Amino acid sequence: MVDLGLLQTFRVLAEQGTVTAAAQALNLSPSAVSQQLRQLSRQAGAELLEPDGRRLRLTAAGRVLLGHADVMCAQWEQARADLAQHGASSRRMLRVAGFATSIAPLVAPAAEDLLRADPPTRATVTETDTRGSYQQLLAGRIDIAVLTPLSDSPPIDDTRFDQEHLLDDVLDLVVPEHHRLATHDAVDLQAAERETWILPHHDQGRLINAMCLAAGFSPRTEHHADDWQAVLALVRHGLGVCLVPRLVPLDAHPGLVRLPLTGSPSPSRRILTCVRRGSSGQSAIAEGLRALRARATLR
Fold first, then answer.
1. Structural domain of residue 10, as residue ranges?
2. Domain count, the chain
3. Cis before 155? omega within 30
4. Residues 196 and 264 reside in one and the same domain
5. Quick check: helix, strand or coil at residue 52?
6. Gap between the Cα atoms of 284 and 111, Å rounded
7. To the nearest whole number, what is the mean pLDDT of the chain?
8. What is the Cα–Cα distance from 237 to 240, expressed in whole angstroms?
9. Domain boundary at 24, 50, 84, which?
């Protein structure tokens, strides 16, 4: 019999590429990960990994097993949901991760809704970026992720995850009130080609770079800040402009102007919910997804 825990370690190693990174993702020691991988190899009767410089890569047998591992782990998640319908224990705990600007308008209100429901579900909330969300889901450390997919994110049909559209968060150009563009009702992104840009945190910075490149220019960035309030302060003081999602409020920074961008559809970032494949039928996860969708419809 194959231990599903060993398969889980193998899947995380396949994603991370090194024993050290897999151990960090799983909150295990590197020696424990190595021992589990050797045990799985013995159970499978084949070498599953081989050195590739400082990393490990899957052998042909490893790639075959990985496909089966994804299916078996998804079936186990579905089995847990089915068992709950026949009297098995159904936990009312939920672990949710979201990116910074999703927490205040979406994740935190949904967590409150779950706590007030009958029966209540207690949700613990973690802030993480897109890459961290996928890693923590795969490692079994969270149950639901609210994320913005990037160009190198797993595709929507990735067999390890169930991903669903939650909402499109429109991006506007934000400038100080004395800026030359501030009196416009809307602007073309190319109108900001010669501006100095504030570069926000990594995920959003990549998205802005991609949008500007699609508009025909590379943004000239001189300032960087991870926190949106810091970004807005830099804009307010005339140090540059930035594309800011509508989930980010400007209330704390008077003197800023939000300019919609012309074009159809409006530039936006997609926001998805993501769970492990097969787990969406588990009661706490299903309730969490419903609460998030309900909050998204209010935006």
1. 4-84
2. 3
3. no
4. yes
5. strand
6. 11
7. 92
8. 8
9. 84
CATH number at 251 reads 3.40.190.290
Quote the pTM value.
Answer: 0.86
State the Rg of the chain over Cα.
22
Nearest to 228 by CA among 97, 127, 124, 96: 127
Q: Are residues 29 and 115 in the same domain?
A: no
Burial class, 48, CB count within 10 angstroms (exposed 0-12 / middle 13-18 / buried 19+): buried
Residues 227 and 246 in one domain: yes
- Condensed to tens digits (0 to 9), the pLDDT of residues 177-232 reads 999 999 999 999 999 999 999 999 877 888 898 889 988 999 999 999 988 999 99
Verify that 258 and 186 share a domain, yes or no: yes
CA dihedral (15, 19, 22, 23) in degrees, to 10, reads: 170
Ranges 90-94, 158-162, 215-219, 287-291: which has the least confidence: 90-94
Do 192 and 78 lie in one domain? The reply is no
pLDDT at residue 91, as a whole number: 62
List the Cα angle 233/236/240 in 5-degree steps.
95
